[in-house]
Specification:
The structure is a homodimer. With about 120 residues, chain A is of the alpha+beta class. Chain A has a single domain, classed as Winged helix-like DNA-binding domain superfamily/Winged helix DNA-binding domain (Arc Repressor Mutant, subunit A). Chain A is built from six helices and three strands; from the N terminus they run H-H-H-E-H-H-E-E-H. Chain A has a three-stranded antiparallel beta sheet. In chain A, a hairpin with a 2-residue loop joins strand 2 and strand 3. In chain A, about 40% of the residues are buried. At the A-B interface, helix 1, helix 2, helix 3, strand 1 and helix 4 of A face helix 1, helix 2, helix 3, strand 1 and helix 4 of B. Chain A binds a DNA duplex (30 and 30 nucleotides) through helix 5.
Chain lengths: ~120, ~120
DNA sequence: GTAATATATGAACAGTTATTCATATATTGA
DNA sequence: TCAATATATGAATAACTGTTCATATATTAC
């Protein structure tokens, strides 16, 4: 390593990048959101909840897997604020947290040319 | 588990979810994109490249870490089509792949209230 | 209060992944 | 051709993560 042919240009970009880099905590929070949806099992839950709110039993029906695994996954999605929960009697009813979630899903699906 | 108080409604949603669930391959591809940006080290590279294209040396300068680690990370981002590379003499110059990447970053930053 | 149902959670194990180290490849200049 | 520079990559290891199993909590009906 050393210097490249675009020394001035790239060095300026690198300096600007350092100056504008979000702090470690913010980078970590953004990364956590992406991590929450980076596993197929959790991604399927989000795809499923596009159809409307559901209790855990029906989420399991929609995406497969065991109740325990789905429950763990729901917790991660909830901690990343991708979904929200409300209790309704014996059930906990889950739904997408806000419009950002759908927007991001749609953007990325467009990116990989996946029709949803 | 069994039935919940919203049996009809949730069951319909679950059935629709199964019917509209992308196939395993597409879910995997979307998940792979998210996984690529779910690690702080890789996320920082994307934040850095917002300032313009850079060669590896300057990316290392901007985000820290070793040349080898950054090179491995660049490969993952490239495979996920988040960044693109072109050779320029001895250097490989990297840049964000397309407008989707920035758009997704901005959406998620808004979501977690991180100013970028 | 007790039984039944729905959901959550802690611990452990298996599988995955990020980094490091050493080395390989590719380009340039002499 | 040889040396120097820039970047990439394979293997190994340490850290992390998803799932399973067993169990806990919360709500409802009796």
């Amino acid at each position: 390593m050393g210097t490249c042919g675009h020394e001035e240009l790239h060095h300026l970009a690198a300096e600007a990048a350092k100056a504008n880099m979000p702090n470690e905590e913010d980078v970590g929070r953004v990364a956590a959101v992406f991590k929450a949806v980076s596993e197929p099992s959790r991604l399927k839950i989000l795809f499923a909840l596009r159809q409307g709110e559901m209790c855990v039993y029906h989420i399991v029906e929609a995406v497969g897997g065991t109740q325990s695994a789905v429950s763990h996954q729901l917790r991660m999605l909830r901690e990343g604020r991708m979904i929200k929960a409300r209790r309704d009697g014996q059930n906990i009813v889950y739904s997408l947290a806000d419009e950002h979630v759908l927007a991001v899903l749609e953007l990325v699906c467009t990116h990989v040319k996946c029709k949803i």
